[in-house]
Design brief:
This protein has helices spanning 3-16, 29-38, 44-57, 61-76, 82-100, 108-112, 119-129, 139-148, 156-166, 172-185, 204-207. With 216 residues, it is mainly α. It folds into 2 domains: 3-20 and 135-214, Endonuclease Iii, domain 2 (Orthogonal Bundle); 29-129, Endonuclease III, domain 1 (Orthogonal Bundle), CATH 1.10.340. Helix content is 59%, strand content 0%.
C-alpha cells in the first residue's frame, strides 16, 4: 500500500462508519476489561450473552469477588476456557482493589501485570476506554494488515509497530475498530469479499488478482 492508498483506505472506512465502536457490551471500564478478558477464543456475541447476567450481578470488582468462583462460572460457563478465565478475572479483581483502589489503571505496565491481560488486551483498554492512540492486533487486524499490504508483519507486535508508523494520526483513535470490523465482515479469512469491498482498489491483494478491474 502506498501512502495515498492508506489515506484513501481509512477515509473510505471513516465515511462509511464515522463513529465505530466495540461490539462488546459494557457500561464501565471495569466491565470492558472483564468482557475483553472473557473474549479470548470466543465471539463477542457469546461474551455479550454471558456478561449481561454477570454484570447485572457484579458490576464492580468488589461485587465480582463476592460472587466467588462458582458464582462467576455459573454465568460464563458457555464461554471457552471459562474456568481459567474465571480464575484470572477474580485475581484481577483482587489486584484492582488492593493496588488501584478498585479502578482500572490507565497505564500499560499496570494493565499487563493483571492476570490474563497481555499487550493486545491492554491496547484495547487504553484505546477504547481511555482514548489512547493504540492499536490492538487481534486475528482480524493481523489478517487485514498483512493481506492488504497496510502493515505487513510476521507477528502481532511487528504488525502493531508498522501500523503505528503508517496509519495517519487523524485516523488512529478509530483505526482499531475499522480494521476489526473490516476483517470480521468483509475481509474474511477464507473467502475475502473483494467484490463488495469498498476499499478493494487500495488493497495489494486485490490489485494482484486478474479481475482487479471489477472492484466496486
Amino acid at each position: 500500500m502506498t501512502p495515498t492508498d492508506i489515506e484513501t483506505f481509512f477515509a473510505t472506512l471513516q465515511a462509511a462508519n464515522p463513529h465505530p465502536a466495540s461490539e462488546l457490551e459494557y457500561a464501565s471500564v471495569f466491565e470492558l476489561l472483564t468482557a475483553v478478558l472473557l473474549s479470548a477464543q470466543a465471539t463477542d456475541v457469546g461474551v455479550n450473552k454471558a456478561t449481561r447476567g454477570l454484570f447485572a450481578a457484579a458490576p464492580t470488582p468488589q461485587r465480582m469477588l463476592a460472587l466467588g468462583t462458582e458464582g462467576v462460572e455459573a454465568h460464563v460457563r458457555t464461554i471457552g476456557l471459562y474456568r481459567t478465565k474465571t480464575r484470572h478475572l477474580l485475581e484481577t479483581c483482587r489486584i484492582l482493589i488492593e493496588r488501584h483502589g478498585g479502578e482500572v489503571p490507565r497505564d500499560r505496565a499496570a494493565l499487563e501485570a493483571l492476570p490474563g491481560v497481555g499487550r493486545k488486551t491492554a491496547n484495547v483498554i487504553l484505546n477504547v476506554a481511555f482514548g489512547e492512540p493504540t492499536l490492538a492486533v487481534d486475528t482480524h487486524v493481523f489478517r487485514v494488515s498483512n493481506r492488504t499490504g497496510l502493515a505487513p508483519g510476521k507477528n502481532p507486535l511487528a504488525v502493531e509497530l508498522k501500523l503505528l508508523e503508517r496509519v495517519p494520526a487523524r485516523y488512529m483513535d478509530d483505526a482499531h475498530h475499522w480494521l476489526i470490523l473490516h476483517g470480521r465482515y468483509v475481509c474474511l479469512a477464507r473467502t475475502p469479499q473483494c467484490g463488495r469491498c469498498a476499499v478493494a482498489r487500495t488493497c495489494d491483494f486485490f490489485k494482484a488478482l486478474p479481475h482487479a478491474g471489477t472492484a466496486p
